[in-house]
Amino acid sequence: MASFRYFRYVLAAIAFYCMVVVNLTRSDFNVTILKMVHNCTGNSSDPFCWTKEVEELLVSSYFIGYTLQLPGGLLVSKVGSYYSCGLSLLLTILLTFLTPLVATNWRILVLLRVGQGIGAAPSFPAISALWAKWAPRNERSTLFSVTVAGHFIGAALANTLSGYLCDQDTILGGSWPSVFMLYGILGAVWFVLWMVFVTSDPVSNVWTGMDEKEYIALHRAQPQPKAPIPWVWMLTSLPCWATFFCHFCSYFGYVTMLVGYPQFFRDVHKLDLDQVGYISSIPILAMFITSVIVGKVTDTVISREIVTITAARKINTAIAMFIPAIINIVIAFQDNHNIAEIVVLMTVQNAANAFILSGVQVNYIDLNPDHAGVLSGFGNSIGSLTGIIVPLLLYRFNPTSKNAALEWSSMFVTTGVVMAIGGIVYCIFGTAERQIIPRHNGAAEATRTDEVAEATTNVQSKEPSDEMESSADLLNRSMLQNQEVVEVEEEEGVSETTPLISGKGKQLLVKPASHFNRM
Question: Among 223, 342, 349, 434, which residue has the least CB neighbours within 10 Å?
């Protein structure tokens, strides 16, 4: 079967698409609900004449299911990223198709949206676990940032397309039901791509060439022997909790943007649905562009040893938290009649917030790659609580009140303060150093290095076994130990390799880093 020379970049595109689908199915309701209740005149026979409490519940119900990311992380640790993400997100996609059929009964609709959130819950832990196995250390920020940037494109598309489709009568049945039909179709296409091309690790992927498998094994974080999930360490580690707390505070600002911006432009600036969708998308697109650039720059400065990984994570997090905090407070006291200034400020704020992807959000892989899925699941479970808290706050506002602008000012100040506190906590207590985890027998799990010299020394120090391993078995074992093994014909003059095991005219050799510079 034909293989890709750089399949990890193809994988990044499919994982990016995954995040787009997750946010399309999550954000579709933020604009469509405005259309659904738009023509409500107080007639009790209208199925969409919902109370504010019901609207609040409908918007936040997705996050009730989405907070179950810790079970999602546990699922990832048991069955891997491939099945946990693919099959669970399929549930979300199928429920998206069903949304127009049950929308007239808000109680069933709430349950359906909870189910959508449950289906999407393993996606982020699965992506973290995926890159823990697929990403070379010098590409970790780039690949992770490009992937999670799909969240921003999904949100931007949801705002823009939803507003447009709601005003159409001919596309996929017309009006707001067409939103769910289109997003369901896009999700179904992603599911096929994921099931055909993706695997949880490089070793078992038939689309990945041997050179790339060897390169990834040499440069990724070195896996440790399989061990139980370190619950005590995770629940008592100060760096872990600094990361969890900052993730929560960052998510608070993100959900305020995701859910709040459409309402803010509708309530305070009295914009129609099309305008709300387009204007709300501008700050989100700024996040996408910035996140991709910052990921690459971060990997570059780390690989050139300009800064340490911890310093890079803290600098990015400080930018992502403090600049938006200041701008939120500025917006709170801004002249709300000048919509252009508001949009510019929100765009700068969200561009800065995109630095978080190369800061706190990739930090779970830094702390412990072997348990990145569970760490990410726990952190996202805490962060997703904001999906319940923020709508609860926003739907207490009265859009017809003369004090609507003042109420929104209080929300912006609250968001700014929360983000500032999160940034302070992480900059003081956070770290990107791989953590030493106490084992159950009282010993410590030593942190390993990814240098080839050490890997080679470890291999040379071992005595050959009496039974010769097959090339495939040795490669699989090597991938788990972060060693580089390649099979070549035995010949004179081979000086750039270190013999490991020889037999029948062939050698299994460990190659130095210079061999992989071409990758």
Answer: 223
Q: What angle do CA 376, 381, 387 make, to 5 degrees?
A: 130
Which mean pLDDT values do the consecutive 10-residue runs of the chain (519 residues) have?
Answer: 75 94 86 76 70 82 86 86 92 94 91 93 88 86 86 83 78 80 94 95 90 87 68 89 94 83 75 73 85 88 91 94 93 75 88 90 86 85 86 68 72 92 95 76 40 38 39 44 40 38 36 39
Asked if 127 contacts 15 with a C-beta cutoff of 8 angstroms, the reply is: yes
Of 217, 201, 120, which Cα lies nearest the Cα of 510? 217
Tokens of 414: 């609250």
Look up tokens 């780039």; give the residue: 142
CA 142-235-440 angle, 5° bins? 100
The strand pairing partners of 128, in sequence order, are none
pTM over 0.90: no
3-state secondary structure of 293: helix
Amino acid at 70: L
- Of 132, 113, 125, give the one whose Cα is nearest residue 59: 113
**Rounded Cα distance, 31 and 258, in Å:** 10
- Cα–Cα distance between 358 and 149 in angstroms, integer? 11
